[in-house]
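Preliminary data (for renewal application), magnesium ion complex.
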Amino acid sequence: MNFMAKIKIKNLKDHLGEVVELDAWIYNLRSSGKISFWQLRDGSGFTQAIVSADDLSEEKFALSTKATMETSVSIKGKVNKHPKKEEYEISVEDFSFYQISEEYPIAKKEHGIDFLMDNRHLWLRSKRQWAIQKIRNTIINACYDFMRDNDFTKIDAPILTPNAGENTTDLFEVKYFDNKVYLSQTGQLYIEAAIFAHGRVFDFGPTFRAEKSKTRRHLTEFWMMDAEMAFTNLADNLEIQEKLLRSMVSAVLEKNKTELELLERDTKILENITKPFYKITHKEAVRILRENGSDITENEDLGGDDETILTKLYDNPIFITNYPAAIKAFYMKRNSEDSTRAECADLLAPEGYGEIIGGSQREENYDTLKKRIIEFGLKPEDYDWYLDLRKYGSVPHGGFGFGLERIVTWICGLQHIRESIPFARTIYRIKP
Ligand code: 4AD
Ligand code: MG
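Predicted structure:
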């Protein structure tokens, strides 16, 4: 049998001068009489095919003129190198169509964001969206690598939960037979249970928040990685976060040069990631913010605008520690020197991006935790299993959670979080 293994576009350079076969889509094309140029994409990369009447039978060349944007093809041809650039192209000797595409709705002209989001199932094919998802993948893989190398065991937290994991204001309710349950806001409480078996654990999965806000930072469904460690303190916790983020950003800088270029991302700031992160208290952040025009007070959380103002002043991620305890979650331990403050930190990305990680030391004392649950308006009976963890070998422990899309948005330099996830869910969008 005359069998020829098909190759991928990214490997064209290894086949210079050879005749190869490959499968691809024509993402753009132009023709001038007896010659056509097909811009090809196969998922691994991009290239150009030259379809010339001189190299094909009259019949085949006539068929080639039926090609349209997004037509899927199988191609056989010789690999040549661009005379000046590091680019390869194929002189087509034969081809067949899988399907001749109907008129593609996303043509070259500018489209509004609503049109593009309505056509997200097609928009994902564009070079820019391809680059973003490739970078997202590098971040996910780098995260798994880091967690494995640092002895974290992956514990898959449930999605359907009987009680609030973070707060009661943005829960999605789901009918569960005759009861109601909630979609998980965070896996944290469940992975806390697992530290007693495994020491260091993490989860990585979809989380849900019924965010009514329409901002460039919020999704209603997003992917969170929660990490939790036994026998730890906040300083160790922050060190792990810093190393993890550094390893993810470094992986992207190393593996996604083409993608970062496509996105026109200025990588200078990303390269600062090897330097120590900034660390300021919430009180200091408030002072800096007030100097820069914000009316935030010492007992308030940073609003979206505050995060924008503050983080534009920095060229590397910033830890903000010691938030007012009242505006943070019920499970956070209090600071030993000031009980009105939580032993916590948020990590904010620079350049106006804002919060990407939230973390804290957890309250490990049974009585104190029970008191907090009541103070926060929650029912201790809903958290009996969580309180149990403070009865049987309780230990100082803590952890953090990052929002994958927030990290992708910052690393890619996107204007809005909706492009960081394949299919965004927001208050106004659930389709496609
Ligand atoms: O700060 P959050 O609410 O912290 C927690 O859920 C903790 N239980 C995590 C932990 O300690 N294990 O959420 C964590 C991160 C935020 O820093 C942010 O990056 C992201 O999740 N996030 C969102 N991302 C997109 N859309 C939203 N609506 C988000 N809400 C939070
Ligand atoms: Mg937070």
